[in-house]
Amino acid sequence: MASSLPLLLAGAALLAGCAPVVPHLAPTPAVIKDPRLDFARNLQPALRTTQLPVFFATTRKAVDGPEHFGNGQADGVTLGVATVRLGEPGWTWDQLLASDLASSVAQPRPGEVELVQVMGTAGRGDAFTQADRDFIANIDAQLARTSNRSVVLYVHGYRVTFDEVAVQMGSFAHYLGQGATVTFQWPTGTKFWNYVTDCPKARQFIPDIARLVALLAQTQARQVNLLAYSCGSPLLASALAQLRAQHAGLDHEALQQRLRIGNVIFAASDVDLKTFAREHVKPALDLAQQVVVYFSRADRALGFSSLIAGASRLGSPELEDLEELSLDELRVMSEEPRFQAIDVTDVRGAHEMGGMKGHGYWYANEVISTDVTLSLRYPIPPERRCLRTKPGTKVWRMPEDYVECVGSRLLEAYPALRR
């Protein structure tokens, strides 16, 4: 192990992925810039604001100072809500909308966590605390204010701060019409070498993520959509496998009634491909309406991760690893229509935003983030959201006219969106 340590550290040095530490908004998804569409017109007046809530469950330790939670580990899971400001201090609603139309990855817009309200410590297992009940009640109150009755849960990757994640997901809450957005935040440092220790240590929080998913099913949400990024992906995948095992006697329909999981989305996933195929796909499909995997052959961070691990990653798969899977394992990934593998390698535009080249495409690229945003709100099959299969494969891609097609489909389904 000692002889391999320099290689591990060298690889980790290149794994600058998962974004910089300065809180900023994600660039506006391309469909929101479509001049035919007006997504803000149906928002209630109270939601026309630059401040919005982002709920959180965190195992980070609270700290004094502007960052709110640091990279130390707390005793238990803290539940609360962060008030996130989008844009410059003093911006009006109209200024925020104008910035949405002009935004680009080259000029990140600032954001800030202005207030953190802690509700208390989550319970363990089936035991509920007052914090659990307050968490559910506050999410329900947010859902009652908006037409988007979906909850989104995000599990981040490494090398990010609490405030950065909150602001990033605050921008997606804005793009989604201010449904209830939740982050599970685990302790990670802000140095490149934290990859070597933080991602493996985070596995201890898998039961906490499983419990959080079950807790969100206690809300009034029509569905709960889940998103995991980078080395947050093995945490969510394993949590879903644990959750499935806890309800071993229930079939897919019964699990849908109990947990109401819509889409499970894995983006740039730093999880072993063969492990995912053998242990995670089937439980996730049992629980969810759809499982969506975005991958890119140009993801350098996962290329180095594969080198360190000695096996390809889900977010940047190698064909030879697929050949080692059994026929049954391959059949689930190639024939199940509810499993979607989406190759974004050749999508034009930025594929990173301050991190390792090719690793941050799900939020940096306005075309890819359009599909992610749609999938965070609606369980729409890929062909209905304008994706096309690659010839001779079951892999989906985004055609050149993807944004135009999506805008037209939205207008057909929701004529009230016409500007």
Your description of this structure?
This protein is α/β, with parallel strands linked by helices and 419 residues long. It has a single domain (5-417), classed as Rossmann fold. 37% of the residues lie in helices and 20% in strands. The protein is built from 15 helices and eleven strands. The protein has a nine-stranded mixed beta sheet, with helices on both faces. Strand 10 and strand 11 (396-397) form a beta hairpin. It starts with a helix and ends in a 6-residue tail after the last helix. Mean pLDDT is 91; it is low at 1-20.
From the N-terminal CA to the C-terminal CA, the straight-line distance is: 61 Å
Oligomeric state of the chains present here:
single chain
Topology, number of strands: 11
Mind summarizing the main beta sheet? 9 strands, mixed
Low-confidence stretches: 1-20
For the largest sheet, list the strands in their spatial order. Answer: 3-2-1-5-4-6-7-8-9
The CATH homologous superfamily is termed Alpha/Beta hydrolase fold, catalytic domain
Overall CATH class: Alpha Beta
Give the overall form.
globular
Figure out the total of helices.
15
